[in-house]
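PROTEIN DESIGN WORKSHEET
SECTION A - STRUCTURE
LENGTH: 223
TOKENS:
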């Protein structure tokens, strides 16, 4: 599927997905570098009825973190928006993944996003590396921002049986329209400004050593 077809898909649905290698065959990620990031660099970001917080092992004991997770599980089961996963925010990944950030912040890549979305993007408004361990999840929500978002999956050989699938729902949030397996270097591009796209990430059920990881980037649209 060429750029014009992805452009039509984005304009029709508010999102499109494909292998980034289709258009950037030189795109590479140092997985050894990512897989060897120290545990204390990853936060546990948890949203439950008590609020949303990043917890670090350097200042919060694991029992307290697991307690916050338990509340998030309860909220999920009661139909409330909640989530639990790991992440590394910009201040850390700008040092660890400087080459990868340089690619997604490059004019060539932004022009590529423009050709797909019809939106000229300006600065990166948010960027982080996410990791879903066993039992991590993200319930149904719509991302709201001032431009577009992208998710680039960074895990090899991930299977649907492991969970961690991105599910796109209809506007009534009753029917699953599309399911994306987080395949390696697959990119999901979605509108965060003009479209409401309900979606969720299903609970990860696997203890696989290589975790479900992704680079998440938000761009502001130029006025």
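SECTION B - SEQUENCE
RESIDUE ASSIGNMENT:
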């Amino acid at each position: 599927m060429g750029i014009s077809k992805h452009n039509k898909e984005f304009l029709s649905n508010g999102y499109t997905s494909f292998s980034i290698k289709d258009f950037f065959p030189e795109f590479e990620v140092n997985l050894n570098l990512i897989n060897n990031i120290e545990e204390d660099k990853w936060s546990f970001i948890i949203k439950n009825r008590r609020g949303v917080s990043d917890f670090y092992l350097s200042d919060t004991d694991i029992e307290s973190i697991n307690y916050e997770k338990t509340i998030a599980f309860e909220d999920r089961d009661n139909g409330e928006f909640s989530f639990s996963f790991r992440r590394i925010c910009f201040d850390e990944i700008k040092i660890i993944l400087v080459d990868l950030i340089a690619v997604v912040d490059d004019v060539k890549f932004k022009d590529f996003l423009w050709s797909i979305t019809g939106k000229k993007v300006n600065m990166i408004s948010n960027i982080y590396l996410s990791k879903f361990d066993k039992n991590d999840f993200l319930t149904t929500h719509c991302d709201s921002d001032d431009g577009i978002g992208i998710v680039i999956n960074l895990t090899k050989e991930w299977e649907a049986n492991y969970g961690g699938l991105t599910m796109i729902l209809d506007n009534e949030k009753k029917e699953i329209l599309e399911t994306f397996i987080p395949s390696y270097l697959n990119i999901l591009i979605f509108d965060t400004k003009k479209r409401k796209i309900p979606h969720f990430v299903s609970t990860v059920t696997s203890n696989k050593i290589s975790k479900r990881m992704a680079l998440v980037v938000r761009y502001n649209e130029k006025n």
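SECTION C - NOTES
The first helix runs from residue 3 to 13.
Helices lie at 3-13, 31-35, 62-77, 90-96, 98-104, 107-117.
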